[in-house]
Amino acid sequence: MREQRQIPQQRSSIAETAFYTTTALVATLGMAILLTSATIAYAIAQSIR
């Protein structure tokens, strides 16, 4: 059997920052859509009453 060496992977800080920024933006957008749709649903429910 051959030995498997673990090669340390070095990510650039720009790529890592972009990854976390993108993740945060997607999460924020998802929460905004959820809040907006809940607000619209509440407004529709109130107008039907």
Rg measurement, Å: 22 Å
Domain unit count: 1
* Uncertain segments: none
Distance between the termini: 74 Å
Please indicate the percent range of residues in DSSP E strands (runs of 2 or more): under 5%
What class, by secondary structure content? Answer: mainly alpha
Mean pLDDT: 88
Helix content: over 70%
Largest sheet: none
Would you list the SSEs in sequence order as H and E? H
Report the strand count: 0
Individual helix count: 1
Question: What is the molecular shape?
Answer: elongated
Account of the protein in words:
The protein has one domain. With 49 residues, the chain is mainly alpha-helical. The protein is 73% helix and 0% strand. The chain is elongated and about 70 Å long. It starts with 12 loop residues before the first helix and ends with a helix. It is built from one helix and no strands.
Concise structural overview:
The chain has 49 residues and is mainly alpha-helical. The protein has one helix at 13-48.
